């Protein structure tokens, strides 16, 4: 209810302008259909009301907030109209909002509206709640007309055998619900409270259950034991289409009231139509044994109840079928007595069609050996054993099926099914059939009867089967095949003979699930020789099992088990396609953005005609596989057509065929994954489906599909976690035949969520829901990732006809796009330097690199090959030599570290390579397979295994990097064998690490004096792998989970990156020795040992210190600082110096030793992020090297960068993801060195350098134009004031140095006028001036340059203020002028330079005499070659005028200038360099002190800049800087 405080109040409604103006506001109604509504603003509300938002335009989403702004907690989200505050019922009515849940007083509602076009906007309305008069009392149950609804109780989730809750005595789990369900929009349940309390459960769709409802519509249990013994009550507030009804029911728990007891609580009769009345007797007594007067209550007229005397009473129940048509009739009789808990008796009468009518019609009873009911045959006469699946077909026009086993009188059904499919043993939530174990029956013939209730009456369907000794058996000469094979081996074969136990001939069939197993029969009749063929190609290492079931009608089946153990002894699974059938592993991960439009051959997985789909991955399926004949890339229609099978990934089914997709770098992007289904088939309601999937295996995935269910078409968004289907969202969309539907997944690694959306016919995108995913979905922890594949984040397309017939689904495209791109490539750390990618060279899977003393880069690769790279000065690899000596000695080896030892420091070619490696497999490593090998001699062909028997994890943790320390000893990083210090029982929580425990030399950095006489490097302790190693190798620092790399710094310290936990892990079961044994994988805050995800760390390494990763073999039992276990840290525990962030997989690390970039990076640490935020990060240490001052990402556009090295200030990066070694070239804008200030603050002087001095002539100060003349001695950093220039004081004169003299020409006495033609020569020997022949034209805004024996002046501004394109040439020897060819562009105040006898003129301004500026910042460049004329050069990236120009290293540098309208100063900050060899400009950074109108010149490789303006227009400075370019 609601009312206005003041009827005359005027409610202002905000108008929004879109294509038209319309009113939008929050409104309130007393009616569910929103009729007779009024504005919510200023309304006074009580009781139940219906609040909604009346949108002005179509909106894709409306979010409601109660008493909060739109940054608060969302109260309700509505994705389509109507937009109701409390939600919308399936019939379109709004749900009521109970104002009683709010305190009396002022409240407000905020809406955030996302229109289909336009920006998001918000609305808000305030209202008053006033329930002081107690409200209206709610509705139906509060007195007056009795409610038509009751609270019912059942002891099973299907709600069968239900009776009234009132008076029951309950314990344990039970099922309470509302009946009937008709005309109900919402039910709110309250326990031991009326409707004004807090709801225990809110149900908004049928059925309406106190404990909630499962996805298959079964009731969820409510545990009554949680209430305690005694009397209790449940209140149900029922929102119907006509109002609100409140009902309640009392009951007792445990030892409450005395009870009535019945000798039976279920009475079942069956009788033909028109048959005699049915009677049964029972006894009702009191639990006290005393006599009480008994009352009864029931509803239906066909049932009569006669009570004889007080308790114990004999009760006669009589059912009269007269006048009733065939069908099932049910009633409940409730018996009560004063002071007692009641007892209810359920009475069911099944009326069968009269003899001669109502037969089974077209319904059949079928049997299948499969839960999906495939391969079904008629049940009659079948011989069976083990699990069977019996069901009724077809499913049409059936409202109920009652099943009876060996019960011809139909007295007690074993199963009642009220919705399709109709299964004898019941139906799973995914609509597969539940199995019935026939072995539990006695041997012989058994009958099954089904009463099928239809709109045309009840049909009786019967079937029979034979079990046990009464059934002849099929038999096999072989019961089990046990095979082992390598992935490179041919298929393994074996044979058996299938026959019958009585020698008869039987028609034989077989079924099995695995795609790697082929079964062929030489005859379809017994006896039959059967050939089994198991193909290991395409399988990864591991164990595989399948069961082949042979069956025949009338015979007991026989099974043959096949066990296949697959190995990968030569590492062939990596990269060659063995692990990744049917494509090569390295092709699976694609770059983002990724797009397949199916309009042409795309490569990857092929369709039946051999056309590539563009997909690179097939999601493994235990019973499904790759069936190219069911794929069709139709380039004419530009669609991929998938023909379905019944296979699906669902819990243990795992039979999906053609789950095609791709992999991508999950941690690096917020990815938007989409596809469009065109004209999806309607289906038969048998759960046919097609759409997107996202996950890493058949038991861990999400699907977003269009699905045909019994109630029509819907979109389903569901999550299977560890083989259990845990989350599901559904949205009804109806039949989409002839339409399109776009399915969208947004995968966000930042918050580990997956959002599902869809759009029909190009309309608004509607959000299904958000699913929180485990870290494994985003490939955060590299320990669990095949390094060849490089990811375990996979997504793609799928289709299945499930329980129906095969269909064709058409996919228009498949896209993966980045959302909110972070921007890759160079990231300037300051204005003075940045790194740019200047070249890449193909090297497959680079893992480590080191520079040799011969100037060549040595790169170790994943399987043991070493590449020797020779670079030229332009970062091109001019020689690439493969070194295969390790592989020649041992075969493929997982090689992660390489180091150089300079054996003869006087000879740059006399050195050895040292490699750290272990067994080849990345995910099934051999124990103690770690080795350090020295390669030397000619092309490094001499192989010496210096250290053997080092630890290796089952995952890819093992021997990582190695370095020689300052003491000449060898230091070796060894990864941890476990996730967090303890092994985890794989039967409880399987993980990448298996069940291996830490060893004495694992999870540490080792030290070995390998050059010591008698050094013993044999470390494997074969008698006790957890004992002390029998070698001269020891731990230097311990507690490192997985330090991939470390560095000895020039400051005397050592530093390492360490990867934090990103998968399932556990610390030791106790914090004190002996702490060996399995850890508990449950979260530590729930009593387990799993600390959860941990960040990557930067460590300062100190000998003997422990860094927090436990190792029971060393009695290191405390995880990190002990806080997770509630104990103190170990005494030698050392904390990290910096947290590098979660899931980065920080790996390679170096010290940057170059002094380039003015030493800004010298001594910094630089490391790579491999798994998230792919790129390079610099770390600035404090002066003592004991702490971090700052860190920043300096380069982002990399693909799984694993390692890095530095040479001459440039970075060399091993990009593991794309198989390249890339060069990041350091580009520095210059080192700015402050020098002595000029004697005066000037703007626009003329300038040049002569004999080590920078001369300034003229210009202007804040007081006006001047003829001042100054000289700056660059070597001594001193200024002197010289004799003033004669003649008028001017700005922007041209100044040149020739033959020891200074020449000054022209200039202007005002900014846009007053150009003069005066010419002068200055003699520095006697500090005197002389007048020369005047210029042919008066010009200002000019520069002068010398080529040979002539002085050139190009462009300028004439006396009327117009820019010119002239070229004036002065001959100093003859004191004469001549005119050269004009430029193509007029320009004043340009930049000029001379390189190799050519005049370069760039930039400037084009101005007309009428004051119009055509272009104030020209960027074009023209080049004048004496004797040849003008030519065009490359244009600058940034146009400008009045800027400084340098000529360092034969190139042109441009600094400052004006006018930059995007800068607050108006002065350009970008520093550009022109490469005369390539005729190209590049921006190399930002100037530290940019100016315009400065004096400048180039001297000994430095650009000297002084005075000028720091802001555009008239500003003045006297600063001086010397700039070095690199």
From TrEMBL:
The keyword Metal-binding does not apply. InterPro entries: 6-blade_b-propeller_TolB-like (IPR011042), ConA-like_dom_sf (IPR013320), Kelch-typ_b-propeller (IPR015915), Kelch_1 (IPR006652). The keyword NADP does not apply. Transmembrane segments: none annotated. Residues 146-156 have a biased composition (Polar residues). Residues 128-156 are annotated as: Disordered. Keywords: Kelch repeat, Repeat. Residues 134-145 have a biased composition (Gly residues). SUPFAM superfamilies: Calcium-dependent phosphotriesterase (SSF63829), Concanavalin A-like lectins/glucanases (SSF49899), Kelch motif (SSF117281). This is Glucose / Sorbosone dehydrogenase. It comes from Ferrimonas marina.
